[in-house]
């Protein structure tokens, strides 16, 4: 089955199930295709993408993954076009890690850079966090500068400033000792230097701030640290390829705080597919969940699209998640 047959099958199966086709990544609105905005960018809006997982074909892989996702680059490109087709695209897009398919090959980042280039060409500032499938040195070959602008030497830690709220992008990548081994790609952590920087930074914040990383806050053991900081308004992460929302708190005392933690889908690989658009005002930030698809082709694309996949998309498409500033 070719990628084209697979994507056509997804679309047709949704129609056969009697469900609306909700802007799937494989059937993005035609108005978005090739669109480039002549309109101004919105400084109060932030796009959120995660888990791009671009990868070389099997024949070109140095570290064989055992998997191919031929539909992924086009699916991601269509969502990039969707961002650009907005009346006023966001001035900033943040990425929550796992740019590479699996083992951080140079070619993976070359494909990712080509996929995302229209965003920077339109004047949008794109800032990435590192995920557990990334390799920093390979990433730098096509996304230079992170080693010189980072807040923590040896890690790629960024702060994205917007008028109403800032975003701290942490680096939770623990690079594998052995390349080409899936089991070796499961490490995570911030390290002592980054933890020290984070504690000092959160204790001195004067502006509402989101903390962001590839991994969830409790996996990095910073859930209570984030919740107790009065200026941290939320936590954003990727990794699971699912839309998901939960809460962080710092105990049950009278002084306890509760903030929302939000997980994002993949940009075009598998499970939930989509991206997020955060619009900000002085009092709140509202995330619109741009759910575009759901599929589970780990071994091969499904010949028939289960109706449940469309229901997963409908459950999240257009849903709004609010954060008080």
Set out the fold topology.
Elements: H1 3-16, E1 42-49, H2 72-84, E2 90-95, H3 106-121, E3 125-128, H4 136-140, H5 146-149, E4 158-161, E5 166-169, H6 191-203, E6 209-213, H7 223-228, E7 232-237, E8 244-249, E9 258-263, E10 271-280, E11 284-295, H8 307-316, E12 320-324
Helix pairs in contact: 2-3
Describe the structure in your own words.
The protein is of the alpha/beta class and 325 residues long. It has a single domain (3-34, 42-324), classed as 4-Layer Sandwich (Purple Acid Phosphatase, chain A, domain 2). Helix content is 25%, strand content 23%. It has helices spanning 3-16, 72-84, 106-121, 136-140, 146-149, 191-203, 223-228, 307-316; strands at residues 42-49, 90-95, 125-128, 158-161, 166-169, 209-213, 232-237, 244-249, 258-263, 271-280, 284-295, 320-324. A 6-stranded mixed sheet has the order 3-2-1-10-11-12. Helix 2 packs parallel to helix 3. It is globular and about 55 Å long. The protein starts with a helix and ends with a strand. The relative contact order is 0.16. Residues 1-35 have low confidence and may be disordered.
Provide the descriptors you would attach to this structure in a database record.
325 residues, Purple Acid Phosphatase, chain A, domain 2, disordered N terminus, 6-stranded mixed sheet, single chain, 12 strands, alpha/beta
């Amino acid at each position: 089955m070719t990628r084209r047959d697979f994507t056509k099958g997804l679309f047709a199966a949704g129609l056969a199930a009697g469900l609306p086709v909700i802007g799937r990544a494989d059937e993005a609105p035609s108005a978005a295709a090739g669109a480039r905005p002549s309109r101004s960018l919105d400084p109060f809006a932030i796009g959120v993408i995660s888990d791009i997982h671009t990868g070389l074909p099997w024949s070109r892989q140095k570290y064989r993954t055992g998997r191919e996702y031929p539909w992924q680059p086009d699916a991601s490109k269509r969502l990039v076009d969707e961002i650009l087709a907005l009346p006023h695209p966001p001035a900033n897009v943040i990425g929550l890690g796992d740019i590479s398919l699996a083992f951080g090959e140079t070619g993976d980042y070359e494909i990712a850079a080509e996929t995302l280039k229209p965003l920077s060409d339109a004047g949008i500032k794109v800032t990435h966090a590192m995920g557990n499938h990334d390799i920093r040195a390979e990433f730098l070959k096509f996304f230079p500068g992170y080693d010189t602008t980072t807040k923590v030497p040896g890690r790629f830690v960024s702060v994205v400033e917007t008028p109403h709220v800032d975003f701290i992008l942490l680096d939770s990548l623990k690079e594998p000792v052995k390349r080409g081994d899936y089991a070796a790609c499961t490490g995570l952590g911030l390290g002592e230097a980054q933890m020290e920087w984070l504690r000092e930074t959160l204790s001195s914040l004067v502006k509402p701030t989101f903390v962001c990383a590839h991994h969830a806050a409790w996996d990095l053991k910073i859930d209570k640290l984030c919740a107790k900081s009065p200026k941290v308004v939320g936590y954003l992460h990727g990794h699971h390829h699912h839309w998901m929302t939960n809460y962080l708190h710092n105990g049950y005392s009278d002084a306890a705080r509760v903030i929302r933690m939000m997980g994002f889908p993949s940009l075009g690989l598998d499970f939930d597919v989509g991206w997020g658009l955060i619009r900000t005002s002085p009092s709140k930030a509202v995330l619109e969940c741009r759910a575009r698809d759901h599929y589970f082709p780990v071994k091969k694309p499904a010949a028939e699209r289960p109706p449940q996949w469309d229901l997963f998309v409908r459950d999240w498409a257009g849903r709004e998640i609010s954060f008080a500033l």
